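hey m, so remember when u said the tokens were messed up on ur end? i reran from scratch. heres the input so u can diff it against urs
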Amino acid sequence: MKRWLSLVAGAGLLLVSCETESRIPTEQSDAHPANAPVLSQEPGSTIHVFPQRGPRTPLPSGLLLSPPSLGSPTIAYHGGPIITTQKVQAIYWASRPIYAGGPTPGTTGAGSGDGSLIGFFLNHIGGSSYYGINTTYYDGSNNHVQNTVTYTRYWASNTGVPAAGASVSDAAVRQKILDGISSGALTWDPNTVYTVFSDSGVNLGGNFVPGGYCAYHNFWTQFFPSRVYKYAVMPHDIDIDLQNIPDTWCSKWILDYGSPNADAAADVEVNALAHEIEETNTDPQINAWYDLFNGQKYENADKCWRQFDPYYTTANGSRADMNLGGRDFLVQKNWEYGSLQGCATIFGVATLTLSPNPVSICLNGASPLSAATTDEIGNGWSAGTVGWSSSDPSIATVTSTGSRSGSASGVAAGQATITATLDGVSGQSTANVATCLAPPTNCQLAWIPPPHYLHVTWANSGAAGVSTEVEILKNGGNWTPVATAGPGISDYYYVLGTQTGLFYARVRHVKSGYSPSAYCNTGAVTVS
């Protein structure tokens, strides 16, 4: 969700940077240095914010499970650019480490050297099944977002540090980013989102107050040299949650249910960080992917605001919904785009269903099996190849015949469980192995004009006491059982009435205590 302000808007990510000068805490001046690049602010553009409150009031307190998505049931592409290979640089703007284990003020370095939980998250979110949701988005040339997030640089700046209680304007945030690039603490890159973090008590961006935002992403255009900067403003979100104001919070579940990493401030911040990174990828200049609904633009993460499920209990008794690099996190869902659209936590196989179930297998014969795989919201999942196993190979064995198909063979009479597995998700079918009846032979289908019958004939196998099931198929539809002929009978008349079209028939022998025979199929006849 967003509020409309007269600034250039963009999508957000987390970035860190550092400086080495004075540690005296002062509010940064908005003055523009004489040697700085010329900036442009485009009237009528917007900052896209991650709000503390939503349009539905009142909202339930605590962990909200599967609420309706914000906006309409869909999201659409509006023609703007995306970032296909996302990079992050971060500025920690404070006179002390903002988060436990974070960079020492006055230093700069590679993102891999950021020992905070923020740094860990940034170094592990790329390539995850969670971030894979963003790969469902693409640009006008069908270039998809890649499942990568590269945390390239941090800058722990201790110059011009805003004091507790200070309000820092958006212009000052942008100038800080330019200062980092011009000093060499950061580097310019068009695929990078520069994310600025502040310490407790700082009103970073100007509206980090109760009822305001948790974070926002933005962009601006520089005329010379020609550049488009993307950045995210990341205030100290736990400041809002600690005030315990009804329906005014950023990630209050961490305070309500515990911090998965025993670092509440960072665990709260990570949720907003994921939100801004996802939106930077898919809508960096607020003109690519969004849902325009009742005058509001809802980006992908906006549509899943406050959705955290299914969750699990961590070793320390907290709640989490994903594990990245061996650490648990509680992070909101993201919007998946596809034939079906909806909020998801993972982009991968979620359900695997085997058919038929049960499956009848003739002794010394074989029966085919197929596996249907879908993701969390029901879209078909085609990646990977299913693995197969049998609970009792002395009864039934199974082999792969394709990425989603297998063949089960009967070894001895009895029952076994056939299991198909893909990426840790399994489905099962009960295999019943028995002596099968020999099938009918010489199956024929003829049309008898008025009084309008189909005449099905077959030769019985000769086994004693077998009946024959007869099925009809019309115009490529589904097979319909129409009769079971008793022992010794070798034909059946099917009354057509006024039906016309292309018809087929098939028959098989059945007998109590035996598996059905294979089908004997007729040719087609046309009824006019």
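this time it looks ok to me. The first helix runs from residue 117 to 124. if urs says something different then somethings off w ur setup not the seq
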